[in-house]
Amino acid sequence: MKIKTNLFLILLIVAISSCASNTQPIKYYSLNLNDFQTSNKAISANQIRVLVEPIQLAKFLDQDNMVIQIGKHEIYKANSHRWAEPLDQSIVKLLVKKLNNKTDNTYQFVKRGRHESKNPSLHLYLEIDQFHSTDNAQVILSGHYWLYSEDHSFETMKYFNISDGLTGDGYQHSVEKLICLLGQLVMQITNTIKEPRG
After folding, report:
1. Tens-place pLDDT, residues 46-90
2. From CA 145, how far away is CA 32, in angstroms rounded?
3. Does the global pTM surpass 0.85?
4. Of the candidates 61, 92, 56, the residue with the CA atom closest to the CA atom of residue 78
5. Kindly report the CA angle at 53 between 177 and 142, in degrees rounded to 5?
6. Which of 122, 110, 100, 97 is nearest to 54 (CA)?
7. What would be the CATH architecture of the domain defined by 25-194?
8. For the chain, what are the domain ranges?
9. What gap in Å lies between CA 35 and CA 141, rounded to an integer?
10. Is the pLDDT of residue 111 over 70?
């Protein structure tokens, strides 16, 4: 009986050890690590100040884990591949940097909580429905954004649905492609802001 108990304990320890050794290490990804470019534009009193409000993410995106869309309706949560910081904050940081680098000196983009001493002329709100890769080798960024004037009267709302094909493997490549999609969104926002408002 004692031999059976000892054998059972040894088998249990081996089983637990093999499960523990099969876990993959967690990898973290950031949208901002290699994007150190800062705007060299001088800040002037005549600039139109655009306050980038906190982004609203779809619930399945508002988590640490990266996700992949499988087929039309399934979302796979990658347990070993995670965002290094909250995704909404990371996207806002990158958008503010890219918007300040893409627009002329007429506009200054700031995120809420920073440099709010002056009243903004415009508010930019974004809602993101998709920001992930798919099982058919695509990356997708979709949602909509609003631009409001200083008195919060409605000015314009635009939808965006941007995608690109993956040409490499792995989550690192997906992140690089997602950053490119944000660059395309920046171009769309820049064009919208420059449209005449009446």
Report:
1. 788 889 999 999 999 999 999 999 999 999 999 999 999 999 999
2. 21
3. no
4. 61
5. 35
6. 110
7. 3-Layer(aba) Sandwich (3.40)
8. 25-194
9. 19
10. yes
